[in-house]
Write a structure and sequence with these properties.
The protein is of the alpha/beta class and 355 residues long. Helices cover 34% and strands 16% of the residues. The protein is built from nine helices and 13 strands. The chain is globular, with a radius of gyration of 20 Å. The model has no long low-confidence stretch (mean pLDDT 93).
Amino acid sequence: ERAQMESVYYVLTYACHRKCKHCYDVRFRPYLRDELQAIVGEGIDNHRRIIANLPDTMTYLDPSHPNADGTPSTRIGRIIMAGGELLIDPVRETLFYPAMEAVREKYGPGGARISMQTTGDVVTPKILEELRERGIWMIAVASLDDYHVGMEGAKRKPFVENLTSMFENAGFNPVPDPASGRDHLTEDGPFYVFFGAQPGKWIAELWPRGRAWENGLSTATMETNFCSRWSGAKNFLNYGFAGSEVAIEPNGDVFPCCLKTKLPLGNLTEERLADILESLKGHPVFEALNAGDPLHMGEYLGWDEEQFRAASHTTTPQGKPYANLCIGCDRFHEEMLGPVIREMRKKRLALADVG
């Protein structure tokens, strides 16, 4: 078993109490009655099989933090659970808490760092207590930007102050400033952190996806290579080492990046993550993604750089010209990669049957 990961980004459900205009997926929104039951039910039905097919251990080697003898240090990886909003009533106790418990059951206490993302506006002291009981390592409040209604500009201040005091009272600590010399990835937490799609930050340009795309909000250009950033496809195949991450949807589909390629690599309700990643290693298309270099992913199948650049140009729903490598990647998946992925999956499943 070698496919340990630094990070697994696992979306448990699309159910959310908000419908933000910059969201990367139109499926994240409020649902009612039967529809709500079905959308949360998908996560309930699948989470145990998905977690069972994650790596047997959640550790990874970090060469940039060597041991005294120069060998890479071993660190504990993170399972980042997200939605939607995991803390709303229909989700919290039926899906989120059981998923946390399934992770602890598989890896033992402290065997995997459980992190979660929330908008923060439904957090209560009681919930914080319940999260601590279930071994939460970090809570990331991911709503600090002008796109979240009620969080615009100065409105964030009282929100942050109120949550900070709630966290502190519940025994959570802020993620230490790197300048402090502390490395929180080696500490047991629990921590809290605030972030959002703010100018100059991680995804300030917004991914050309979901409602952000429908609303013409992505400011990315051809020079914006999301693939080479954290949560892009870069290093997704380097399992066992720092930098490796995959993203998982509620139905078990696996993707090399959080933006999600047009087609999934495989599905964790039917096969192990280790087997999926192992089958992709050495394949020129997936190695290019692994290098954070989507521009050259098509060469193996006859799409040269010029063709990929041309395919990366499109028009926004508002009629404006737009170009980004993610668009080229989408078109390459649609036009060329479908049969390749299907064939690889067929081979894996046949091998699994024989095994």
